[in-house]
Amino acid sequence: xxxxxxxxxxxxxxxxxxxTLTSCRKKEKNDPQPADNEQETxxxxxLAENSDNDMIAxxxxxxxxxxxxxTFKTNTGQGTELMLAASCATVSKVFTGTVVxxxxxxxxxxxxxxxxxxxxxxxLMYNFPNATxxxxxxxxxxxxxxVTSSGYSVDGNLVTINSKTVxxxxxxxxxxxNAYSGVNLTWSINANISITKANNQTVSWSCNxxxxxxxxxxxxxxxxxxxxxxxxxAKVKLNGNxxxxxxxGENFTSTATDLVRDFNCTPxxxxxxxxxxxxxxxxxxxxSRPTRTVDYGSGTCDFxxxxxxxxxxxxxxxx
Length: 319
Prior knowledge:
With 319 residues, this protein is α+β, with helices and mostly antiparallel strands. Helix content is 17%, strand content 39%.
């Protein structure tokens, strides 16, 4: 075979190889990517949101009501020591002079079932460093609450507080006894918590949030600085950012916009003190994957929400 024929054959083989490679590459490029419809990581964020807010709700009510919890306890008629529907949880307090400067809520080690149908164990400690300077109630401008935990778990999920501080940022213009000036009571929330789920997966979550009592002008809820807030009639709104590591080990970021919880809202009669978010959104981005939008609705009292991923919307039920 002469050289020219060999060259032509080699050229033909090379062309076939090139076409084959090109075809393969084109096929790979046009292959549809598997749909990302994973919703568990958004649920991790919701778990952290609820855990954080429930701890704040407990502390705010302790402060406002001298150790009682108006939306967690039954009408036992036994003062401040019994809460969460049973004597399995106790409240102790520390005084500096005549001012309470800290509370400890002890849920015990065997499990304390609350009116919200959640089982808690361990302890939550609430310290009020500004109480002796006059800001001793959650409603007082300048009030600060530092929260810590010891073996605290909810429904088998161990919640560890690395740091958590809540500060009342309300301007002093609304501090009169009958001050309904149209300015709502507000707080800043800075928290760093980790949750070891019942399946041993861990979620790390940090937030920088604002909290607003959006019905501060309702005299049935906020009665001025000389009376406790009636939390059974409260409506609160949260805004701000969070970040951390989800149970899949991915770094994530999230932004909460106008999350509203209405303490009059009880969708399930068997869980009379479980008050879900009823409106607002959380934009949640896990790692390099597509952003999820969690939409809690437009104010209907229910446990329903949706998660939207890549234009696909999925219905979810809140826990």
